[in-house]
TrEMBL record:
This is G protein-coupled receptor. The lineage of its organism: Eukaryota, Metazoa, Ecdysozoa, Nematoda, Chromadorea. It comes from Pristionchus mayeri. The chain crosses the membrane at residues 6-34, 46-71, 83-103, 124-144. Keywords: Membrane, Transmembrane, Transmembrane helix. It comes from the Eukaryota.
Length: 145
């Protein structure tokens, strides 16, 4: 029975690692396609560009956590806490992505006549929304740890 559990654990760990590499490759392709096509407003384009990186922020620390557990490496409490905090930071940051998109789309709908001229060169609104998104994620993680 123990062999079956370890075999299943190994299979799912390998599938998870393959998914990480696929996600990383898809992130590169997605951002490359987004860079080439300039059809979106700069605010929306920056939010779309940053979206896959928010997922990488919680996948990379969780990968290191899995590697440490899988190979039975000796990890300190500080390293374990740091990796879990970074994973939680990425999870909360990615969950607040929808909030940023919603606010940006609401402003675009509300200011439909002026929106194309608002921050058309530098996406100030998207930068503020991203700053707020990650500040909120940092505040939540700080309260958790």
């Amino acid at each position: 029975m123990a062999d079956l559990v370890s075999t299943i654990t190994l299979i799912f760990t390998l599938l998870r690692v393959i998914c990480w590499f696929v996600l990383f490759f898809v992130t590169i392709l997605y951002n490359d396609a987004l860079k080439r096509r300039k059809v979106f407003h700069p605010n929306l384009q920056l939010l779309l560009f940053s979206m896959p990186f928010t997922y990488l922020i919680f996948i990379i620390p969780s990968a290191f956590t899995l590697i440490v557990k899988f190979f039975s490496l000796q990890d300190s409490d500080l390293l374990s806490t740091l990796l879990h905090a970074l994973t939680d930071f990425g999870i909360f940051g990615s969950s607040f992505n929808l909030f940023s998109f919603t606010i940006e789309r609401l402003i675009a709908t509300w200011k439909v006549d002026d929106y194309e001229h608002i921050s058309s060169r530098i996406p100030y609104m998207a930068l503020l929304l991203l700053l707020f998104q990650w500040s909120l994620a940092a505040a939540v993680v700080t309260l958790l740890y």
